[in-house]
Amino acid sequence: MASRNRSKILPKEQNAWNVPVQPKSEPVGGKPRKSSTGSTTSKATSPSAVEQSVSGSKIPLPTVSSSMLKKSQDKFIQVQRQHAETAMKYAAEYVSSDDDEEEDLGQDENNGEGSDVATRNILGDVLKNYHGIDADVGKTQEYLQNLLESRNAVCLICIETVKRADRIWSCNACYTFFHLMCIQRWANDSMSMKRMNHEQQEGYYNNRGEYIPKPALNVQWDCPKCRREYVPEEIPRHYECFCGKERDPSAHPWLIPHSCGEPCEKNLTPACGHTCRLLCHPGPCPPCPQTINVSCRCGCSPVKTIRCAQKTWTCTKKCKRTLSCGIHECGTQCHDRDNCPACQNRSEQPCLCGSQTKEVNCHESRWQCGTVCSKPLACGLHRCERVCHAGLCGVCPLGLPRSCPCGKSETRVASCAEHIGTCGDTCEKLLACEQHRCPERCHQGPCGKCLELVPKVCRCGSTKKAIVCHREAICEGRCKRMRTCGKHQCNRKCCDGQCQLCDRVCGKTLPCGKHKCSSLCHQGPCYPCNQKSSVKCRCGGTVVEVACGRERKANAPKCKLPCRVASKCHHPNTHSCHIGECPTCTQPCGERNDTTNCEHPCGAKCHDAVRVVTRDKNFKPVGPWDVPKEIVEVKTLPHPACTEKVPVMCLGGHETIDWPCSISKPSSCGRPCDRLLKCGIHRCPLTCHKVTHRASTTQDSRCEACSAGCSLSRPRGCIHQCILPCHKAPCNPCLVSIKANCYCGLTQVFYKCHEFYPAGVENKGPEEMAELDRRRESFLSCGQKCIKNFPCGHRCFSICHPGRCPNPELCSKKVKISCKCAHRKAEVSCKVARNNPTLDCDQQCEAIKAQKQEEQDRKERETRAQQELENQRELEEYERKFNKRKYRERKRHQVQQEETGRHWAVYVLPIVAVLVGVVAYVLFME
């Protein structure tokens, strides 16, 4: 990394890609900065620092007066204020934190939109060509968002911030950024270390005497983060953009850092033939957004459109192809063609030769039984020596061209009945050791064992001697290593290091204390004793066996025989044999209940012998540690209150409920009395109370008299209560006066409630209801003229009425109508004006219309002429200002030229004026 002047840099902001941020002012008295003109401010010194430096010095200090201290303090405050103002000015003018990062987004963005808007614009440009599903591009978008806004992109090798102007390299697997020089140094150092370690390694001999060479050199380097391995040729040599199209890409403020800004066009993964449509970007490419028309994996369903990244889809149909066994169908759900799974059904299948049959899986139908065929060959002299096979046995192998057993004589065709003898030469076939050849003469059958003497290392590797080749070298040394038990030596002759288990008996006394361990010698504790001991129940009728040594801690077996201990209550023992005291009797008592003095037997649990815990009430403790002693006694408890259910009727005779015998007394049920009072309408509101006759449903002498008002229903529409006390129907007519607005809303009318809402409306016929509606309408009408207007705008001529005004088409008010040109006018009635809203124009109207058109055309011609004159004036003004000045000759030459002929401008200017006028006229007409 190039060294930089740290005094020129602001405190480092966590902005890896220099997205524009608002610059922050430096605190007062901070690190010195370099101003825009290049001058450096000095560091302000606090008074405490001055005092410390002075107090630490050994030079004698002169006496200082209070006036001098005040002047120095004022001067210090003034200098400190100047430094603060300079620092704030520098922070406001500062743009970048490094000299090589001069490309920023400008002051307008810093003051306006900010880094968030810049990030959104950059992301929108990168992702604008992607038209896939939002979920597919979500990870890529999140990666780009974090890349632009995280402000902590750090090289993992040098632990420095990766800036937009740095030369970088990104891993192809984890997409992590590194400085180009850092990753080059990392790769070279990694390979150098591997080479040095490989040079220091050496080969060695194992315990069998075999030479193990050092492993081959594998020179590779890996990514510092994901450890993906790269070959030496993949060491980055150049700084490239993310897609690899451009070398040394330039930094641009509106592009992703280290990007070329062109489409990525990398081949997508998995390979589908399409390329990435995003702009050059870091990280992985999103899935392919293209759509393709494909059928399902089995090809049975119709074609449908899916995303290319999905490639294939599976339908719900089952495969019906016949499997390789030729019997069963596939039956699995949609899958690739010609890729059906093996048949899992089982069936009886013969072997290849057909001599045996067994049940095997259908996909394993071709199996060998392992017997020799032994069928006569075609020659009739020999039999087939092949193991179970299918098809014909073939020709006799002895009938093929043969030679002598060692193969040195000439190969010739001979009959299978002819015997070809040995050639008499040395056999020289390669023996089983694969190092020496057979020294015997040509012979029939296999060769013998190798008898060559070769130097061999023994199994333990301590001795080397010559021995027959087919034998293993064994020395007489005894192994001194300890066996797995850790107590005895191996003592095996010429041990190869794989010491056997100890074969001695352990013999330790087992935890049971009765037997000894019979296992082989071992480390650690012995296994529990495998002998059995018997454990009996209390009565001795049930016996079980437990592991030896566990009989003391083992629980007594569960015995199903009846308990033989005498019972403490008046019931016999019905429980099984047990250990310890008998359980509490759970049978019902069954004796007469003398507590309640009723005829029901006691139904509580037996209480003849109950354990009662008591404490001495007269106990006086000596201290807080002294606790009263508990006394446990077996006592006979008295009978509890009888809980037998008996039927009891409530005081008011509403219900009969079963109550316990001990509290079986009539009581209130909590319901309302609900007896019909004398008024014949209301019922008694009191809670269930004592009455004379419980079966009666009418008012009793103890019931509350009726004090309610009238509760009869009023006529429909009447909302007033009857003022009479509770009585029988019918109620008196309602005499309340009602005030309401009339239909026109100008006057208030009054009417009686019973006149507007009479009783018995539900039973009236259609004629009576029509008469009631007319009467109600007369009540709400004020009798004056209606104030509403017809749709035509004139006032209604009817009396105050409900709804819309009647007969609006009969309006006879006078209105004025005219022709289209407004020359002819006439006054007619409103109903005539609705049918004929306008008059017809006459000849005079046509003459006036022609006169107006002629006047309009005259004004247009004057306007065009004035516009042409204006254009001519502007053209002359333009030529006067911008045409080049011509060389003026002397006066005599100018006079002579004027005498000889006219200047060319006299002819050109009129032509130009005419053309400009024509163009202006065309534009004006368009």
Please give a structural write-up.
With 926 residues, the chain is α+β, with helices and mostly antiparallel strands. It is 20% helix and 10% strand. The longest helix is centred in the last third of the chain and has 40 residues, at 843-882. The two termini are 70 Å apart. Residues 1-64, 90-115 and 891-902 have low confidence and may be disordered.
Strand runs, count: 22
The radius of gyration computed from the alpha-carbon positions, rounded to a whole number of angstroms, is: 61 Å
Unreliable spans = 1-64, 90-115, 891-902
Helix content bin: 10-25%
Distance between the termini: 70 Å
Mean pLDDT: 77
- In spatial order, strands of the major sheet run 1-2
Basic shape:
extended
Proportion of beta-strand residues: 5-15%
Largest sheet: 2 strands, antiparallel
H/I helix tally: 12
Protein structure class:
alpha+beta
Features:
926 residues; alpha+beta; two-stranded antiparallel sheet; 22 strands; extended
Quick overview of this protein structure:
The protein is of the alpha+beta class and 926 residues long.
SSE layout:
Blueprint: H1 47-56, H2 66-93, H3 107-111, H4 115-127, H5 134-149, E1 168-170, E2 177-179, H6 180-200, E3 204-205, E4 211-212, E5 221-222, E6 229-230, E7 291-294, E8 304-307, E9 346-350, E10 357-361, E11 453-457, E12 464-468, E13 532-536, E14 543-547, E15 610-615, E16 630-635, E17 645-649, E18 656-660, E19 737-741, E20 748-752, H7 753-756, H8 766-780, E21 814-818, E22 825-829, H9 830-835, H10 843-882, H11 891-900, H12 905-925
Antiparallel strand pairs: 1-2, 3-4, 5-6, 7-8, 9-10, 11-12, 13-14, 15-16, 17-18, 19-20, 21-22
Helix pairs in contact: 4-5, 10-12
